[in-house]
């Protein structure tokens, strides 16, 4: 869904009225924002830290995420099980990302090549290039900065956390 998303950094929650909010716009934009945030996180974490940042697509999975879909789409989910994974099948690419030794190697290669976006695995566990818009690094940096600000973390949060400092998000605290 991130392929059809668009993030307006000054209006990340689609509340300004410039774009009409729909759940589809919110969903697709949040998926793209997640890829963009991950790209900057991938850049900020030094190779020596031994931490890999990977975005993973699980495929189309029949979970509660589908509960608010229009009824005809819900019916389609149920009658085309060949294309729709159950939750167990849908966990495959996430488990692969978390356990296969090739994944950290792949992440290290992208980091060494200064590849602009984060590692991304498709539902069939293959390295994949995120959308063209995900390569918009200027927007990705703004998404990073705005997100840290929204959750009350300082701009050097990654560096401070890696040094062992304890930092707490302030989301929801007025
Ligand atoms: N299913 C798909 O086809 C699919 C495809 C691609 C990507 N994804 C992504 O995979 C992720 C997991 O989705 P899923 O399919 O497993 O959906 P899900 O069954 O609806 O699970 C979503 C989980 O997020 C929790 N959650 C929702 N809103 C929350 C909030 N405001 N604060 C804290 N927790 C919250 C839910 O908690 P409760 O159960 O307590 O509500 C639930 O455990 C999502 O990011 C989704 O976009 C899903």
TrEMBL record:
Classification via Pfam families: adh_short (PF00106)
Entry keyword Oxidoreductase: yes
Keyword Oxidoreductase: yes
Keywords: Oxidoreductase
Entry-linked InterPro entries: NAD(P)-bd_dom_sf, SDR_fam
Gene Ontology molecular functions: oxidoreductase activity
SUPFAM superfamilies xrefs: NAD(P)-binding Rossmann-fold domains
Family assignment from sequence similarity: Belongs to the short-chain dehydrogenases/reductases (SDR) family.
This protein's name: Dehydrogenase
Organism: Lithospermum erythrorhizon
């Amino acid at each position: 869904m991130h392929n059809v998303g668009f993030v307006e950094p000054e209006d990340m929650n689609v509340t300004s009225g410039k774009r009409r909010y729909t759940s589809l716009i919110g969903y697709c934009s949040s998926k793209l924002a997640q890829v963009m945030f991950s790209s900057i996180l991938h850049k900020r974490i030094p190779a020596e830290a031994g931490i890999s940042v990977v975005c993973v697509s699980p495929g189309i999975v029949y979970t509660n995420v589908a509960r608010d879909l229009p009824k005809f789409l819900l019916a389609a989910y149920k009658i085309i099980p060949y294309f729709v994974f159950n939750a167990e099948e849908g966990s495959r690419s996430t488990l692969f990302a978390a356990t296969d030794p090739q994944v950290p190697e792949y992440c290290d290669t992208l980091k060494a090549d200064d590849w602009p976006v984060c590692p991304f695995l498709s539902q069939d566990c293959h390295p994949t290039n995120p959308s063209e818009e995900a390569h918009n690094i200027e927007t990705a940096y703004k998404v990073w900065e705005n997100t840290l600000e929204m959750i009350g973390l300082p701009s050097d949060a990654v560096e401070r956390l890696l040094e062992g400092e304890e930092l707490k998000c302030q989301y929801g605290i007025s």
